[in-house]
Records
---
Amino acid sequence: MSTTKIVIVGSGFAGSVVAEQLARAGHQILVLDQRPHIAGNAYDECDAQGVLIHRYGPHIFHTNAQRVVDYLSRFTDWLPYEHRVLASVEGQLLPIPINQDTINRLYGLNLDEVGIQAYFERVREPRDPIKTSEDVVLNTVGRDLYEKFFRGYTRKQWGLDPSQLNAAVTARIPVRTNRDDRYFNDEFQIMPKDGYTALFQRMLDHPNIHLELNTDFFAIRQQIKAKTIIYTGPIDAYFNYCYGRLPYRSLRFEHEHLPGISRYQPAAVVNYPNDHAYTRITEFKYLTGQQHSHTAIVREYPQAEGDPYYPVPRPENEALYQQYKALAAVERNVFFVGRLAQYRYYNMDQVIAAALKTAERILGSA
Ligand code: FAD
Ligand code: UDP
């Protein structure tokens, strides 16, 4: 191990994409992961009865980046999949993102697109500047919809009020005046045909890539004599928390297999903004397209402690991250990439794009 020149910490998208690109260019790569499996949070597997599930919550691929689709298409075929979500509000299951049908069904109206535009114009609370996640929603749809769909969900998900989070968090969810009920606007909305883990297996299947699972980088750090390290774990851990802990939000996933039921709920995901300790329930068969006489669901319970899943986008955390980033910038021959290492609320496609760039930088300087 100590003679391998390039060590990659983490086999999620960030680590695996860099590994694949460098291996293809002829480098010998050692990939470490502390978990017993590859694929990071995108890991999927069949449960005991053969239903394909996502162990770390629903992962839906969507992007506008042709380059990312072209790259991944080397390792997978695709199934078309448009994601749809309902929110449980006042006893109804209503489309989220908020659209024409959400408003008409919630308030018993019959407005057309122009009517919905006028409705938003009447109820919105204009904010200038738009700094927080509260500003974004009040500015577009006003207080009642904010309280019914966003405030409770956000408090539960982040343990913070929307007024304490950057605008970008709730700005992920569009607001529509038409009847489009898709969750995403992106040009490409597709799922890997054989799942994510199979895609990663193909990506990492290269004679130059050596994989060691169940291996914590920090436990063997002193023995590693690599010329180059690509680190995709939490950035504060790399620097031994010298400036204090960067907040990462965690989740507890409660998986359930439902025998003899082929459909549990009327959409892939149902959000619970105002009830229950969980934020949402996902039924995997919608996402995967799998035919099976049973079904499987997962409930997500947000929590402060546990595996780091989300950076928490707010100004004080960004300031702390910038301190760590300054240390990272002077750390010689170590590259920090990915959602945890760059402390960015990245989707998979953004991580893949960042990893491709990192590989280019490394190859350019090698
Ligand atoms: P990760 O996947 O977290 O991989 C990092 C790896 O590094 C892990 O395997 C970890 O075990 C390993 N590691 C960390 N520290 C060490 C160490 N010290 N030693 C060894 N190994 C270490 N994105 C989408 O595009 N669409 C979605 O629908 C979507 N849904 C999501 C739902 C949830 C609940 C979550 C949490 C995320 C979701 N994402 C989604 C985001 C997506 O998971 C990430 O963008 C992507 O997986 C990040 O890849 P990564 O390689 O940066 O990090
Ligand atoms: N959000 C909300 N209500 C919803 C859906 C989303 O308040 O019904 C807010 C919430 O703050 C959430 C953010 O929008 O964390 C982003 O939602 P997304 O579905 O993109 O979250 P992810 O899938 O990344 O957990």
---
Amino acid sequence: MGKVTISTLDKMKAAGEKFVCITAYDATFARLVSEAGAETILVGDSLGMVLQGHDSTIQVTVDDMAYHTECVCRAAPDSLVIADMPFMSYTTPEQTMVNATALMQAGAQMIKMEGGTWLSESISMLVERGLPVCAHLGLTPQSVNQFGGFKVQGRTPKEAKSILADAVEIQDAGASLLVLECIPAHLAADISSKLDIPVIGIGAGAGTDAQVLVMHDLLGLSSHSARFVQNFMEGQDTIQGALKAFVDAVKSGDYPREEHTYS
Ligand code: KIV
């Protein structure tokens, strides 16, 4: 398919073609994700939970992210690799610039930050200097202590209005992509149709332009299981088969189904 860029994803959104993102943290799995046909790889700070064994992503550092981003980028030269900015590494525009630069120099093509309107200034600053940004709204795991747990967001009219307003502002600030996590399917579909930029969902229903899952969840390796997770190892003999089954299911519209969505 050649090197995937943000233009590839923009064209896929315009054509109504779904694309796929899977997390990876090392070279071997990055290669498998790329070979399975996922257009994008997220070096997520979920590595704090699935690799390091923490109960949240709070402990992950910029050095951790840069290390794993380098490992992934070496093995997946054709994928668009997005690297997470970890907890408290983007509290001011200046700090954001320094830490985002470290992840781009580790090989990422885009960085991801969790949060709404307060990020606008940092997003504009990075984008004006040629550093593309993916934003992340809804259940933003770095705010787990603020939320009092990993809880579905956007269920009240006030919360839903605020997530939609944040999404529009983030797009206006120059973000290229948006991740929506654990929000009602109707809200995610509404935001995806209102925005020009591609929207990637996780626990956000079938109405987004793309889907992402944490690799360990889709391989059935995680100790917990959220409603939106499907174990794609079921019916497969190999990890390669499971990754391909996820990619195919997203592209054909077979995942996520009603049973995976929140209302
Ligand atoms: O860190 C991560 O893996 C993520 C996904 C859950 C979207 O942010």
---
Amino acid sequence: MSFDLVLFGGTGDLAWRKLMPALFQAFRHGTLPKDGRILGIARDDLTNEQYRQLIQQRFAGVEGAKRPSPEEFARFAELLHFQRLDLSRPGDYGRLKDRLAQRNADVVLMYLATAPSLFATVCEQLAAAGLSTPQTRIVLEKPLGHDLASNREINDTVRKAFREEQVFRIDHYLGKPSVQNLFALRFGNALFEPLWRRENIANIQVTIAEDLGVEKRGAFYDSTGALRDMVQNHALQLVCALAMEPPISADADAIRDEKLKVLRSLRPWTPEAITQFAIRGQYGPGTVGGEPVPGYRDEPGVSPQSTTETFVALRAVIANWRWAGVPFYIRTGKRLAARDAHIVVNFRAAPHAIFRTPLGAANRLVINLQPRDGLELHLLAQGQDDRRHSQSLTPVHLDLDFDKRFGAERVGAYERLLLDVIDGRLNLFVRSDEQEAAWRWVEPLLDAWQGNDADLRPYAAGSWGPSAASAMIARDGYCWSEEL
Ligand code: BG6
């Protein structure tokens, strides 16, 4: 099978940080179809050779085995080509069409790694130039809009040019092996399913903590914030994977239909619920990994009066039979104590206490997403700790480390997703109705937080976020896992 990957934003940040390394890995692993071409698109005036040299610089800083040897890069570079294109000039799309026609590949992927404000223009121009053909697939990066209305607008424009099954909306969390394992855990094993409901589960906690700050993306982040950047997409997709009903098959729409039902079951926010169960924070100066780091408002590109949240903790309520009364706590933030994404499923305590140990002490399943990928089942056992009281139990846990089991060098998220687009597999991509339902749910929070700093809580860089996040969950009688 032959493919052309047309990479809009071919010299941009995403191509540089994620896509080129992922394409190179797929090339190295031999999974990228041999008859392929990667056509970088940008306004710059570069020859193919100059583009290859530019991309080679990307790999210069890579350490260890991931760094290609000069010979290996030279072979990869044969795939790399460049086309100058000004996104607003129709004539440039005509030239692109001619270039693609010369090769007439089986599959043409239009990867829009550009600012989302350009998506509509590019789609319109592609359609006008006759570049939307049955062979075409279009890949859209997040953020797809900044609220429900702008998301709908993009989806409507895309829909005019492409059918839904040609549209690949990326949420790179779905490409992570650890997130796919979540589906495997729930739907590949019958063990957990009978327990996976309100009768047995007290609450579920989803944490996506980052120790990094906003890096060089200050200006982008300042107009985005953690709710749009992480909750509307990544965190809600994790909630869907945790809460959805078993799909009738592994087909893309069977999975997406079930995810959509979860998003539609999320109880809408009321002003009272926002006050009590939606916490936002912004990091101040602090210490991360032993190094002093500046506060958010001192980051390059960020307004010194910024009211943008860099931390969010929420209580989501899924109003259906399976989950009635089970809070789903979501927490994410920049400059937290560690890079650590994990899910904790807290099972209910035994209904009647015959031991002395507090019953909340174990009874939980921890799904580690990153940097470790694995499962921990925390149980109570008869330990040796207290020789006088044979009735006091000790928490122990079963620990399954997928990195050790399968090797840490598994297919990366972008590598997986790029190969899926080439193969036309939509399972790990987000449908427009899912996206709209997710925007609809976060929108009252966006409105409440827009342009004001009421209850915007400061937290020190390197901490676990504002104490209000702990107070929120404590009100329900629970605590975050690191507070146990
Ligand atoms: C991106 C966000 O979608 O995800 C970034 O825009 C964030 O702000 C990143 O850092 C986190 O991804 P990962 O794979 O490092 O957890």
---
Amino acid sequence: MNILEEIAELKAKRNALILAHNYTKPEIQDIADFVGDSLELSRKAVECTAPVIVFCGVRFMAETAKILSPESIVLHPNPLSGCPMADMADPDAVAAYRKEHPEALIVAYVNTTAATKTEVDLCCTSGNAEKLISTIPAEQEILFLPDANLGSNIASKLNRKIDLWPGCCPTHNKIMPEHIQAAKEKHPGALVLVHPECRPAVVKLADQALSTGGMLKFVQESDCREFIIGTECGILHRMKKENPEKEFYPLEPEVLCPNMKRITLEDVLFALRDLEPRIELDEAERKKAKAPIDRMLEILP
Ligand code: 13P
Ligand code: SF4
């Protein structure tokens, strides 16, 4: 039996659901039941009735699945797959901010740890952040964490003041305006799509700033045939597979999140075999961390 057959056999035996983020390795995306962006994966976790979820993505995403689907065993096949940006907002520092700014509404990007989610009022993803913040009254003071780029891009789009936490995605922050300019010169007929975690100066040069799910939908619906892709290279797998007649140009140098690439087929196989490593959360913490996610899903179901 090869590894794919072994995984299929164990997956059936465990009655497991495999969820994968759009940035994971192509071979992981190919064995998943569902591949999506953070918001789509959270929605899948809410609906999930499977006894076992194998979550192929960084840790905060697997934690979100556990928060939303506590009855399921949530396996995170490689515990080293973390999101450095999520670790930039420490829960104690957020609690200290709240003490100093009791009037502020704390909006957290879903790229935060479960512990940090217990300290915030509302969660959002890159797919719904702008819409969600536009529902908050203009006079309400807001702190956005941990991504200062995303927060600043939303603030400009909505033309409102937002306090920004000093965090960023090390992968998207490496994309510079000159990388976009160079790609535009090489492919003048292409539309430029970037992730809103990119620097504001990069977003200004793009035709669209979209979540990974938003980009996949956009390229499918667009009449344009060529796209410059300003986000993690893993997304190209689905883009090419779903749109074989279109051309996709990654930026140079390659945009890569090493953490998303840590999960291998072997990790998935061992996780299904051993039912480890699991995401375990203290029940009181899980309930507290769920509140801002529930609020997000209530405002924008
Ligand atoms: P998406 O929600 O757009 O998939 O983004 C998640 C992420 O980690 C981007 O770096
Ligand atoms: Fe975190 Fe950036 Fe990797 Fe997304 S691409 S998981 S934000 S480090």
